[in-house]
Amino acid sequence: MIPLKSEKDLQMLRQSGKILAAVMQQVQKSIRPGITTLDIDRLSQELILRNNAIAAFKGYKGYPATACVSVNEEIVHGIPSGRVILEGDIVSIDLGVNYQGYFSDMAITLPVGKVDQNKKKLIETARDSLDLGIKQARAGNNLTDISHSIQSFVEAEGFSVVRQFVGHGIGLALHEEPEIPNFGKPGYGPVLENGMVLAIEPMINIGGWECLILDNGWTAVTKDGTPSAHFEHTVAITDKGPVILTQ
Ligand code: MF3
Ligand code: CO
Fold first, then answer.
1. Mean pLDDT, range 109-127, rounded to an integer
2. 2 domain residue, yes or no
């Protein structure tokens, strides 16, 4: 069963999402060549606490940090470290917030300084595929209408969609039902209803979709070493259509 949220839940989730969006905006401003992925983590933690919220990822299944910071060929779950961000890198920042028991989840990918044209197009395509997916998050649609809209667009642009990681329901926990693949045929899965809240999060690669997990047990990288991009929003399905909570 996919849990439906009450009006009160949605209000609280909106607050959670607003906090997360504000934190992300501040963190985004700090990204420049020379900072480390751990700097990004520390700033994220400080800003989340300053907003009277809790980092949702820290301790989740043993995840050791506030942020996931995934650079270049890293797809997702990059663990912050002393790694220095360089001009030409693309950096995905994934953050989750728990505000009074209400969870929101968001990711963006940023170019650092001048990046090559292919990486730029990868980032744009990932962002646009998320927007297309969100447009399908409407009462009466099937879940995989979201999946299909993302996959068909990304593949038409010449990129591939990661299979091993998917979006998810969210709200009173970081991960709720359903899983939301970023690939598949349209018209399958549960029928979407007003009151559902979904974290939609396409991860796309320049090369193949296959991935490997590093020895740290978390970080996913592309098998062929090509760059990867990731965008995510927490979205409520309402009688006025999809509402992005993380903005
Ligand atoms: N947005 C990612 C997800 O929903 C990040 C989770 S990091 C984890 O899977 F540490 F919480 F797992
Ligand atoms: Co997520």
1. 98
2. no
